[in-house]
């Protein structure tokens, strides 16, 4: 049950993370999630800035991953979240889970993302052709927590 | 001393990233600290009287009813939007 | 809505598949699943052979992916399944889904794997230190279909 | 002619990967074909009388009640175990 938590400005390599996750011979499943800066429907997105609460982010992510490891039988778990300025199509977040069976991997990956979206202290500000806007929290992200209760 | 931090839109609106409050000998909740801060000015009142604000004590997400003590790190911020 | 289906003997690169999946600027989420040859509890696994029904496998995988694309709003979908002889820790199967939002990606990825496990004509024979055995279908795999009905 | 295929453990047990059956002018279901094949020998009877066998007509998974016609490709196989 190894756990890697990284909060960093620089980009990350999904390929490298996957290679680490697949090492455990007892694990037959690796699920990865990668979140990317996607274009907006309402305005041209020039980029975004990710603010965070240094120190608390790492703790929050560790707690979420530990909770996942208590709920499901998991091998390695890796969470990476970027901060600072990101351009369209850049990578924002990575969650990777290795597990013996696929159901645990899919569930744990989605659980971690759902909790990260609601509990980890990161804030996005979008830079668009019509101005800068702090992103509003989504009701759908809060609703996503319900099914894990 | 109580260390108080603000983040993201709240930090920008208050034009303040962090402040301190002397609460020696007082038994306060995070909500009571928030009310003290809000009473400082109409501007702060306006931006701190937001039912949606989240609160962390010593880097743990807690309810506003959570107690705080001198030496603690208390943070207020809008709902998070990472990921 | 691009769709890549590959049934092949040679190994695949998760990194390359991921790079293709992340191209779509409207997609903010990429979910990948990789299935690996994992060690057995009851005997030493020397390797396995994957038999398939040529022609039908590609059709079955295309139908499953198409069904996923009808159920959820998806960008690119990629499915790779290997055949032939595989050694411990080798990659067996890859499912990758790009989507605007994460919930669709996780659901579609798991849906595709659940249907692949029950409907795609592949059969595993395990080579162990105590002999060769055809793998028996798992009740849990059949049960996994129920929630998509 | 009906083309008939067997896969995996069933192929090994029957020691047969494919065969043909002349069904000209007959209206048969996959189950009736299976019964015809089973009646060929006690050995085939034993291995084809398996409630768990799956069946595909022209590379589409179907129930044993599915009709087959001359020119079709009919396959019988154990529950699949890929992925």
From TrEMBL, chains A, C:
Top-level taxon in the UniProt lineage: Bacteria
Enzyme Commission designation: 2.8.1.12
Keyword Cell wall biogenesis/degradation included in the entry's annotation: no
SUPFAM superfamilies listed in its UniProt record: Molybdopterin synthase subunit MoaE
Reaction catalysis annotation: 2 [molybdopterin-synthase sulfur-carrier protein]-C-terminal-Gly-aminoethanethioate + cyclic pyranopterin phosphate + H2O = molybdopterin + 2 [molybdopterin-synthase sulfur-carrier protein]-C-terminal Gly-Gly + 2 H(+)
Swiss-Prot/TrEMBL keywords: Molybdenum cofactor biosynthesis, Transferase
Pfam family, one: MoaE
Pathway where this protein functions: Cofactor biosynthesis; molybdopterin biosynthesis
PANTHER family: MOLYBDOPTERIN SYNTHASE RELATED (PTHR23404)
Assembly and binders: Heterotetramer of 2 MoaD subunits and 2 MoaE subunits. Also stable as homodimer. The enzyme changes between these two forms during catalysis.
Stated family: Belongs to the MoaE family.
Protein name (database record): Molybdopterin synthase catalytic subunit
TrEMBL record, chains B, D:
SUPFAM superfamilies in the record: MoaD/ThiS
Protein name per its UniProtKB record: Molybdopterin synthase sulfur carrier subunit
Top-level taxonomy: Bacteria, Pseudomonadati, Pseudomonadota, Gammaproteobacteria, Alteromonadales
Keywords: Nucleotide-binding
A GO MF term: nucleotide binding
CDD domains in the cross-refs: Ubl_MoaD (cd00754)
GO terms for biological process, alphabetical: Mo-molybdopterin cofactor biosynthetic process
GO cellular component: molybdopterin adenylyltransferase complex
């Amino acid at each position: 049950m190894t756990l890697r938590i990284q909060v960093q400005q620089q980009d990350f390599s999904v390929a490298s993370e996957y290679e680490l996750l697949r090492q455990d011979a007892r694990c037959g499943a690796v699920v990865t999630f990668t979140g990317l800066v996607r274009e907006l429907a309402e305005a041209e997105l020039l980029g975004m800035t990710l603010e965070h609460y240094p120190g608390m982010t790492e703790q929050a992510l560790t707690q979420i991953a530990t909770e996942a490891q208590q709920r499901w039988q998991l091998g390695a778990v890796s969470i990476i979240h970027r901060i600072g300025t990101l351009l369209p199509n850049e990578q924002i977040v990575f969650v990777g889970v290795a597990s013996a069976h696929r159901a645990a991997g899919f569930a744990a990956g989605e659980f971690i993302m759902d909790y990260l979206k609601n509990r980890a202290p990161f804030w996005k500000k979008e830079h668009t052709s019509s101005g800068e806007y702090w992103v509003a929290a989504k009701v759908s992200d809060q609703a996503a927590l319900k099914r894990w209760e | 001393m109580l260390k108080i931090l603000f983040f993201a839109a709240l930090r920008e609106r208050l034009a303040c990233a962090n402040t301190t409050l002397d609460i020696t000998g007082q038994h306060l909740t995070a909500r009571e600290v928030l009310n003290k801060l809000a009473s400082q000015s109409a501007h702060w009142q306006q931006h701190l009287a937001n039912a949606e604000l989240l609160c962390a004590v010593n880097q743990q997400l807690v309810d506003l009813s959570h107690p705080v003590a001198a030496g603690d790190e208390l943070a207020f911020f809008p709902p998070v939007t990472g990921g």
